[in-house]
Specification:
The radius of gyration is 22 Å and the shape is elongated. The protein has two domains: about 5-60; about 75-115, no CATH class. It has helices at about 15-30, 30-40, 45-60, 75-80, 100-115, and strands at about 85, 95. The longest helix has 18 residues, at about 45-60. By secondary structure, the chain is mostly helical.
């Protein structure tokens, strides 16, 4: 066997290493191609790592969110000059005020769209 026939086999990265790599990519400001070229990483490997973390994050995220119910009717966000009103498929409507939690809203939309 000559040197050209030898294949370099990389060891598997731990979950922590994968998370760190994806985090570094997302905060790098580089394109996927540039980041992979700098790290000697296959573009498909980075894509696979990102999809895996997305799936694991969606599976481990608590799909239940705390809500506060009120017995008195409230004016809509649009009527009170609030920040945002979103109408989803199926007529679901989400209204948020000025200081809303964007992460909680994103999780809620994912849950409702998946229902």
């Amino acid at each position: 066997m000559n040197e050209q026939q030898v294949c370099v086999v990389q060891r598997r990265r731990s979950r922590h290493e994968v998370e760190q790599l994806v985090s570094e990519f997302e905060s790098s400001g580089l394109s996927r191609v540039e980041f992979c070229r700098e790290r000697g990483l296959a573009l498909s490997t980075l894509g696979r790592y990102r999809r895996r973390l997305d799936r694991q994050g969606a599976a481990s995220a608590n799909p239940l969110l705390a809500v506060e119910l009120s017995t008195r009717p409230q004016a809509s966000v649009a009527a009170t000059g609030g920040a945002l009103a979103v109408v989803l498929r199926g007529g679901r409507r989400i209204e948020v005020g000025r200081m809303f939690d964007a992460d909680a809203l994103e999780r809620l939309v994912r849950v409702l769209e998946g229902a």
